[in-house]
Hints:
Elements: H1 7-12, H2 33-60, H3 64-80, H4 89-120, H5 132-139, H6 144-156, H7 160-167, H8 171-193
Helix pairs in contact: 2-3, 2-4, 3-4, 6-8, 7-8
Amino acid sequence: MRPRKPEGLRRLSVRPRKARCFPKPVEGTDPKFEKWVVEMEVSDLYESLKQDVDRFAYSIARHEQEGKDLVQDAWEKSLKEDELLDLPRHKQKAWFYRVMKNKLIDLRRKDQRLSQWEEKMDLPVHDFPYQHLEMTELLSHLSEELSDIVFKRYWVGLSSKEIGEQLGLPASTIRFKLQLSIKQLRKYLEEEKR
């Protein structure tokens, strides 16, 4: 005689559903068999290397989003590499590390090129026809932050990158604020001439 379930459990028990499984392709009879095998191998590879690849990406990246981008780029590239699945696990892991490191180097070089280009676009230091006292008066019409940036750029001769490092701001923000302050000074000078 089979023991009975307690009354509360009997009411809550649900008959298990039959799992809906798609039939496994059979070698030789289904043309999609090779594709299915590759997808399963890539899925297994992903599951086995996911933690190591993520950990490595986050350790070399500046921030979490950059690490996620590195991981995604590496996995996209892995889908195009047929020989990767034939390698032993330790070589697969090394392959992912190398791809992510190379991608990071490419990103850093791109950032450096953009930074150098932006530095060339920085406004040059000009000799102003105004005396020191007149310039001090002009700078007083700007906010303290903007006048400080203009002073450091045009009197001290610092680049926007150096000013940004001192103030904890990106160089592009410094250049924007310089342009903004110059527009404000031009507007003030035009109004004064009227």
